[in-house]
Here is the input.
Amino acid sequence: SGETFDYTATSATSGSAFEWSRATISGITESGSSGTGNISEVLTNTTTASIDVVYTYITTANGCTSADQSVTVRVNPLPVLSSTLAPASICNGATFGYTAASATSGSTFEWSRATITGITEPGTTGTGNVSEALSNTTTAPIEVTYVYTTSANGCSGSEQNVVVRVNPTAVLSSTLTPPAMNSAVTFVYTATSATAGATFAWTRATMAGITQVGTSGTGNISEKLTNTSTLPIDVTYLYTTTIDGCSSSAQSVVVRVYPTGDLSSTLTPPAVCSASLFSYVATSTTPGATFAWTRATVTGIFPAGTSGTGNVFEVLVNTTTAPIVVTYVYTTTANGYSNTPQNVVVTIKPTPVLSSTLTPGAICSGSAFVYLATSATSGTTYGWTRPTKAGISPAGTSGTGNVNEVLTNRTSSPISVTYLYTTTAGGCSGAVQNVVVSVEPSLPVSVTITSDATESCPGKVIHFTALPVNGGLAPGYQWRVNGSDVPGATSSTYSFIPTLTGTTVNCVLTSGAACTYGSTPTSNTITLTVLEVCPDITVTGTVADGQDTCYNATNTITVAGEGTTFTVQNGGHVLMIAGVQIFYLPGTKVEPGGYLHGKIFDGAYCGQKASSIVDVTGGANDLPVISPKSTFRLYPNPTTGNFTLEQTQGTVNETVKVVIYSALGGKVKTLQMTREMKHDFSISEFPVGVYFVKVAAGEDAQTIKLIKTN
Here is the structure.
């Protein structure tokens, strides 16, 4: 098949010519054809059996045509393998068996196999079938090719490749000794193989000391392994690796599981009191275990966070009023591996203290002292003692909880009484605290009143001041005149214009102080004298038409001056009577028709006629000053205590009488000068205020205002 069929037609008859034809035949690729002369064409048998191809020949010579003649050629097929060219893969080291077959009857077979890198067996040849072991020494499948030649009826087919895949023995390329691990940690193993497409299956037997029971799986491993012993345990996983149905021998993947070096000492040590030593001794059942710990900063705990190794020995202070949990995070290390940190938790109890005041309010002698002890720390109990204190009854005592007892102060001064309190909560006691209460003695209450004068001119205001003893912060006052309460007169001062000599003034005090007796006393009584005529007066203003006015003064009358005016209008009538002198100062004016009569006292004041010193009638605008022959000046003025009196006019007098009056006319001191023009005097004992110094020399007299300052 597939070869050129050449046929040369001949005839014994000379000059013969030939014609031929070939019908289309099933199984012959080339369709039917015809021609003359010889035949030369390729015939291809597409079947597996021989096919007879018939050429019909007609021979013509000398005008004569022969009958049809058949030229038959047998076209044998090219034999090929009918057995598979891609036999199933085989595993490394397995015998490859191949039975060659062809649809062409009588076929024979030859084959050859070249030497291939990675295949142990060298190249070889043979006939018929193949049966030989093939060993793949690599990690990847190797395709081994057998080149087959099939022959039949003297025809050989084209070479055919029979290719078989020889799989390697797939093994783990991942480590068989993964790193050791700590107990209770997840063991993760990722299985790998240098053989692409390999799959994995594994088993783990149950082992004493490992909590997890035996198991199996495929692919990778991810499981927790817990070593409950105190020694390392080697856990074995048996891995089988498979590629294309070829499985390896089991391989052991062995991981060492160290025991967890956990604390065997308690994780909840007993609570301790604030400021006490917390001592913790770390232990583990794993030999050679070491310990490291940290303590974070906790609000309310002093000192700040810290860390260390081994045991804990430190004083912790709870600065709050409630228990605080403090956590030590312990890491235990054994065999080079550290456990999952463990929390050692201890409660630091607070030091209970009193939240109730340590300085309760004072109490009065003979009153019950009640003290309710409280603490911000829950469950606190209290014990107290009171030492014996001089001046306090009863004697010292002790008790628990609150205080409720009567204390008596037998002295006249406050006494501080101390209660020594001990607070306890949760077995922890605080330092002794002193609760101190003042026991006040019973105090007498009294009041004294003073006044700026006891004598007064008509219309003159007298000022009174109450001076309480033990009146408290807000004493109450009630002023009384002639034994009767004055409505609204309830402050510490009182002002009053007396009209009658013998008028009395006093005050009733209501004490605002605690711990007193006699709490509403009545003050001393001041009796007042009302003078008929004032010592000195100043006259200003206007006397109008029809007014008849008289002015009295036992010493001096001063008219106008210092920017003021006094005017007697037309028809006005004025009489002035002075015991010593009358000063008409600038600003004094008598209009035409007005009348001003001034005189020195002659035994009668206003209402009685006496000899005139000066008569002035209308028309006089500038009035003379009525003045004695001898005049005096006083300096310094104001003074802080000493002053000098100097005669500035007249001859020296045998005796000059000097009388000092208060601002209200009361005589306070009498002095004198003897045959001297100047003399120094002292009033240092006088209170600050205004005084009048009356100087009398023979028939002459003069009154000078004196101011006493600090």
In short: The first strand starts at residue 3 and ends at 7. Confidence is low (pLDDT under 50) at residues 608-628. The CA atoms of residues 97 and 235 lie 42 Å apart.
